[in-house]
Automatic annotation (TrEMBL):
Protein name as it appears in the record: Class I SAM-dependent methyltransferase
Family matches, as Pfam families: Methyltransf_11
Methyltransferase type domain: residues covered: 52-140
Organism from which the protein derives: Actinoplanes oblitus
Domain of life: Bacteria
Keyword Transmembrane helix: no
Keywords, sorted A to Z: Methyltransferase, Transferase
EC numbers for this chain: 2.1.1.-
Gene3D superfamilies (UniProt xref): Vaccinia Virus protein VP39
Biological processes, Gene Ontology terms: methylation
Length: 252
């Protein structure tokens, strides 16, 4: 069995549930945004009365941020049942509850239910629904994946791809304002990523499923071998993630 085959087998076997990225230690790196999202929402959660985390994944970030002073009402949504189960286990000690809800469905909460809504890397943002569930004077704070993120890896695997405006920060500002919210902060950064072997790439693509839609090792084996050969000859594969932070308020 050659090295490539071993690395592929390891990548296919690695667990990909939840949003814990500790598996990548020593296999890949990603620069962190300067604003420190977890730290920001921890400060907001400490003073919130009713907080909602949208598309929480396995609840990893929310549980860490709320550990100090969880709000009296702490709710999260998650659409993938395995992640929802992980989130329930993590948030239960903090008094948190998890509601299974698809990112494409209306939020299953009454109007003006929360004074704080947060979301890290949501698949989609329904700004009208965010505005609806925010109480007057409430805040939405989110770190999002920007347009063109990891385009180097996407293009390597799929060929050159057009970058659309859906994830552009300016598009989100306009959508938030159209929903009646006031955008008070919008920051945008490009961050260096390195993949040290093809295993890390496989696990990343299995975990972050929208990067290469429909990714399987079988379908992309030739491109994975080419990537393995490039890393072996030239060193880590370098890409750049794009992140933006957006904060919007519902007028009081």
């Amino acid at each position: 069995m050659d090295t490539f085959t071993d690395l592929v087998a390891e990548g296919e076997a690695a667990p990909v549930d939840g949003w814990d990225f500790s598996w990548f230690a020593g296999r890949a790196t990603e620069q962190r945004p300067s604003w420190g999202y977890a730290r920001l929402i921890a400060a907001r959660l400490a003073t919130a009365g009713r907080a909602l985390d949208l598309q929480t994944g396995g609840g990893e970030v929310l549980a860490t941020a709320a550990a100090g002073t969880p709000p009296p009402v702490l709710v999260a949504t998650e659409g993938w049942p395995p992640n929802a189960a992980l989130a329930r286990d993590r948030l239960a000690p903090l008094g948190g509850t998890v509601v299974e809800a698809s990112e494409n469905d209306p939020l299953p909460f009454p109007d003006a239910s929360f004074d704080l809504v947060v979301s890290r890397h949501p698949v989609t943002t329904d700004w009208a629904e965010v505005a609806r569930v925010l109480a007057p004077g409430g805040t939405y704070l989110s770190q999002q994946i920007g347009a063109g993120s990891v385009h180097e890896l996407i293009d390597f695997m799929m060929g050159p791809q057009r970058v659309g405006p859906v994830r552009d920060p300016a598009t989100h500002r306009a959508a938030a304002e159209a929903a009646g919210l006031t955008v008070v902060d919008l920051r945008d950064e490009w961050l260096r990523m390195e993949f040290f072997d093809v295993t890390a790439v496989i696990v990343f693509l299995r975990k972050v499923i929208w990067t290469v839609p429909g990714f399987t090792v079988a379908a992309y084996r030739d491109r994975l071998r080419a990537l393995h050969e490039q890393i072996t000859a030239e060193g880590p594969f370098v890409a750049h993630s794009r992140r933006f932070l957006i904060e919007a308020h519902r007028p009081a």
